[in-house]
Amino acid sequence: MKLCDHHLHSEFSDDSKTKLTDIAEQALYLGMSEICITDHHDIDYPKDEEGHTFLLDTSRYISAVRKLQEQYKDKLTIRLGVELGLMSHIADKIIAYTDKYHDFDFIIGSSHLVYGKDPYYPAYYEGRSEKEALLEYFESILANVQTFDNYSIYGHLDYAVRYCPSGEAAFRFSDYGDVFEAILKTIIEHGKGIEINTGSLYKNMTYAHPHPEILKLYKELGGEIITIGSDAHVPKYIGYDFETYARDILTETGFQYYCTYNHMKPVFHKL
To answer: Most C-beta atoms within 10 A of its C-beta, which of 34, 93, 184, 200?
Structure first.
C-alpha cells in the first residue's frame, strides 16, 4: 500500500504557489489513496524578509478544499488540515482560532517561531552557541506541549537543526535527551503524536525529522501515533522518500502502523 501524505502546502500558504488540483493530480500519479492539505497559519508571525506573514485566509481555504474534495471524491480521499504555529505566550489567540474553526480533520502543531524569532534566519543563532539556540528551541516546544491540547501531532520536532549554521552536525541527541524525554512523555500522555517529516531529505540532511534517536525514544516511551508527511510546497516533493526512508525507519524502530486523521481522530494503517 502506498503511504499517505499528511503534510502538504498549497498556494494558501505564503511560501507556496502550488495549486490544490496540482497536489491532487500528483498524489494520484503516485498511487496514493489519501492526502491531507495542511497550509500554514502562524499567528503573530512578524513579516519576514520576503514579506510573508503566514496568516491563513481560513474561510476561503476551507471552501477551496471542500471544492477539491467534491471534485476528487471518486478518486482520492482528501482531508482538511492546517499547520498551526504554536507559541505558549499567545495561547489565548491560538485556542480562540481552533475554537472558531471546527472543520479540520488534522492539526499539525509546529514551532516556527521562538518568542518571535524564526530559526530559519541566521539572526536566531547570532550571539550565542548553536547548542544554546537549539536548547531554547526545544524548551519552547516543551512549553507548547504543556500548554496546548488543540492539535493532533507535533510537526518536525527538530526543525531548527535544519537551519543551524553547522547543519545537522550541530545536533547531538545526548545534549538534549532530558528535554526530549519530557516533550515526548507529555505528547503521549495527552494522546497526541509526532510525524516523520521527509522535508529535510530534499534539503540536504541525511535523515528525516525527527532524528532517529528521538524516534527511538518516542517508541521506547510507548508512542504509537505517528503520521508521515513530505512538507512539500511543490508537487515534485509529494511523498518524497516515503517508500524507502520513511517506511524503513519506522519498521526498523519497531513501528507496525502509521496514522492518518479523520475528524481529529487517528486512523491506524499497517505498514
So the answer is: 184
